[in-house]
Structure formats: structure tokens, C-alpha cells
Amino acid sequence: MAKKKVVVALGHKALGTTLPEQKSAVKKTAAIIADLVEAGAELVITHSNAPQVGMIHTAMNEFGKVHSDYTAVPMSVCSAMSQGYIGYDIQNAIRAELLRRGIFKPVSTIITQVTVDPYDDAFHEPVKVIGRVLTEEEAELEEQKGNYVTKVEGGYRRIVAAPKPQDVVEIDAIRTLSDAGQIVIACGGGGIPVLEQQASLNGASAVIEKDLVSGKLAELLDAEELLILTSVEKVSLNYQSDKEEKIEKMDVETAKKYMQENQFGASTMLPKVEAAVSFVEKKAGRKAVITSIDRAKDGFLGKTGTVIE
């Protein structure tokens, strides 16, 4: 069977929200991943982390308030912690599922840093909401620290930037393990956003879109396919209207046209289509598929999903 290098991006549905939900969800996800392995995919896996990193951020900062010897924890550290414990659950679930099927294939998680541009306009227009609801007094304290907040129902919440990914710091390690036949879990939650400052990498107060990093990772690995798994089987035009139309296939120019027409939600489908287009247009012969996690194998085999090539 011919093998194909595929970067698979797992969305929220693959992981759940709470710890018990995650334990249950990753077992189902592991079976889906094993199906892809049996179908001939050499996998590198990325995943979301929004509920998890929010939980860690809230917990660590509340702990710091109660215990004066501890300080608030930066977003970069929260991201690293989320990558570790999500990767731990995913890799163990995949390993167990593969062994049950008589497949021995190592699975590794790499805590991944992703460089961002300090001059990215996103740092001046933060949009990603994180953490719990704050009182007005707490919000003022955050602003005094140089952080951004936004008014929400019941109070205020902190917001951070979502800059574009520039490079994956650990790409050589990811490539080496993947080329050795391992399943690699990397760039979790979009990766830890870092700024290059001479020889140092310093964490940025930001989050990176998981789908955009997935496209960048697929590009750097020269993967043949980017498989983005979400909650819908196909991308739609005029989504959730009486004129909704499922898209089976788009070329790059058509996808760009639809993006200019604002056909895709800015925080939902748009980053997925952007990632697909960016990956596909940089080299002939590449393919991106967007489909539901429940139809992952069929999407890989070309039986469903929205194809961009």
C-alpha cells in the first residue's frame, strides 16, 4: 500500500472540554486516527486547545491570587502546559488503539514553539477572548499591566492577539520522527507563540490559529495532504440560510473569491479555508480536505468533504 504524508488538524470535537470529556473523546478520536493509518496515511497531528488553555490560565492565575509567593502565569506557559497534557492523552489513546489492531507504531508529542512577527498588526487589534469574567476593578488592573480587556455580559474578559505563524521552531525534530515512521503530535493549540530576540525565544501574549499552523506545518514537511477535521461534512456557501449550498471542490482562485465575499465565518471556517489555500497554492499536486471528524477516513479516501486543490 502506498503511503501518503498527511497533516491532520483535530478540532474541539476531537477533545471535548473538561478532563472527563477529553478522556472519553480521545478514545473515539484514536479509533479514527487508526483508521487513517490503516488506510495508508503517515500522520502528523495538530489539535485545538481553546477550552483547555483557558482552564489552565484561569486556574493558575486564581492560584497566584491566593498564594502571594506565586505570580501570574503567562499565556506561553499555559499553552505549553496544555500541549503536554492533551498530547499525553492523545498519544496514549492512539498507541492503545493501534496495539489492539496489531499495529506497532510509536506515537510522540513534541512541545512546539511557533515564531510570530512582533510587528504583526494583530498585536494592535487583539481578538481572542481568554480567561474568566473579570470585575471592573480587575479589568483596570489588567490594563495597568498593559493587557487588553473587553466588556462582556456580566463584566469584562481579557483578550489577546492572534498573529500569523511564521515558522515552526521544532520542525527538524518533527520531520525526523515523522520520516522514521512515527505518528507525531505537534503544534498543539497553534503552538506556543514566541518572538525571536537575538539568541532567545520569548513567549508572546497571544494565541495562534490552529488551522493556520496546521497549513504551515504541512508546507514545511512537504506533506501531500492537509486534512482539517471539524464539525461539518462539507464547507458551505450561504451557511445556515435557505440558500445554503455545499461545496464539493474548489480551486485556489475560487476559494479566494469566496473569502473576499465573506462567505466563511471569521472565527470558524475562514481560517480553515485560508490554511488550505496557503498550503495548496505553494506547490503543485498538493491537496487539502475539510470534513467532519466522523467522516475522516472517507475524506482521506476522496469520498466526501470539501476538496481544495
TrEMBL record:
The keyword Kinase applies. InterPro entries: AceGlu_kinase-like_sf, Asp/Glu/Uridylate_kinase, Carb_kinase. It catalyses: hydrogencarbonate + NH4(+) + ATP = carbamoyl phosphate + ADP + H2O + H(+). One of its GO terms (molecular function) is kinase activity. Pathway: Metabolic intermediate metabolism; carbamoyl phosphate degradation; CO(2) and NH(3) from carbamoyl phosphate: step 1/1. Residues 4-291 form the Aspartate/glutamate/uridylate kinase domain. The keyword Kinase applies. It holds the Pfam family AA_kinase. CDD domains: AAK_CK. Keywords: Kinase, Transferase. Belongs to the carbamate kinase family. This is Carbamate kinase.
